[in-house]
Write a structure and sequence with these properties.
Helix content is 42%, strand content 13%. With 273 residues, it is α/β, with parallel strands linked by helices. Strands 1, 2, 3, 8 and 9 form a five-stranded parallel β-sheet that branches. It has a four-stranded mixed β-sheet with strand order 4-5-7-6. The longest helix is centred in the N-terminal third of the chain and has 24 residues, at 40-63. α5 links the parallel β4 and β5 (156-157). The protein contains ten helices and nine strands. α4 (109-127) packs across α5 (143-151) and α7 (207-224) packs parallel to α9 (243-256).
Length: 273
């Protein structure tokens, strides 16, 4: 069942969700699933994203009074509980991003259940609230994954790129808040020499070009009444030369006054009605 594409609160033209994938050093598993995340550039960039990128990102969100949704693997929450609590203290939503940044489709149903249950329970213990949202770790999931997500008490998923508006997925009856790769900062900017990320060692993207992409996508969302679902990683957007991109985007969102800016749980609850 599709949600009406143009009906948003207060007659806003579209909705915007600012989401953050707080992967820390586990971002390396996006490119090399079996990599040791506890050494080299992978560990250095992961820690930098927590110690420097995250505080800068939180400061900008505070300044523009925007509440975001942070999708966090259980193991990252265990390694950096103080960072997770600092996010919660600012009123942001915490969602589940798997447990060990595993490729869930490669696991049996029971292995998936164990991983997601552990992640949910870890996040609940650290934040004091069970996560409502789920975003798959980069990789693959199966229909069984989404059925499990629903069974484990999650209210919505934000994992698939198969629409521009929230919808209820048949079979699992789970609300989906779709995502799109062009609205994810990490693939534009991540770079390490060893191991080579991205493979082939292409250059980091031009920041002006990426910001222009996002602005075009926002204009499209406003024109067609869809969901603008931005994905951020602190190691990318939190860099001193890139944080201005988020500032420019948030200024546009605030100044136009025709975009409903909300966290994932609020958008899912509204669309479920």
């Amino acid at each position: 069942m599709l949600i009406e594409r143009t009906v948003w609160p207060q007659n806003k033209k579209c909705a915007a969700m600012i989401s953050v994938n707080l992967d820390a050093e586990f971002f390396g598993k996006i490119y090399y699933p079996e990599i040791n995340v506890d050494e080299g550039d992978i560990l250095r960039l992961g820690r930098t994203s927590i110690w420097f990128g995250l505080p800068g990102l939180l400061e900008v969100l505070d300044r523009y009074e925007v509440k975001a949704t942070f999708f966090i693997p259980g193991v990252v929450a265990e390694r950096y509980p103080d960072a997770v609590r600092s996010i919660v203290e600012r009123g942001h939503e915490i969602g589940c991003h798997g447990n060990n940044h595993e490729i869930l489709a490669h696991l049996t149903v029971e292995e998936q259940r164990a991983a997601l249950t552990e992640a949910r329970d870890t996040l609940t213990e650290i934040t004091g609230k069970a996560p409502a949202g789920f975003r798959m770790p980069e990789g693959e999931i199966s229909e069984e994954t989404l059925v499990l997500v629903k069974e484990l008490g999650f209210a919505y998923s934000s994992s698939l790129s198969d629409d521009d508006v929230p919808y209820i997925r048949e079979g699992c009856e789970l609300m989906e808040l779709p995502i799109h790769w062009e609205l994810f900062d990490l693939p534009y900017f991540v770079f390490t020499f060893d191991p080579p990320i991205p493979p082939g060692q292409s250059r980091s993207a031009c920041m002006d070009d990426v910001l222009a992409n996002w602005m075009y996508e926002l204009e499209g969302a406003r024109r067609f009444g869809t969901l603008f679902n931005l994905q951020l990683d602190p190691q990318a957007i939190g860099e001193q030369g890139r944080i201005f991109m988020l500032e420019r985007l948030l200024e546009e969102l605030k100044n136009t006054d025709d975009v409903w800016i909300a966290a994932g749980e609020e958008i899912a609850a509204y669309c479920s009605k």
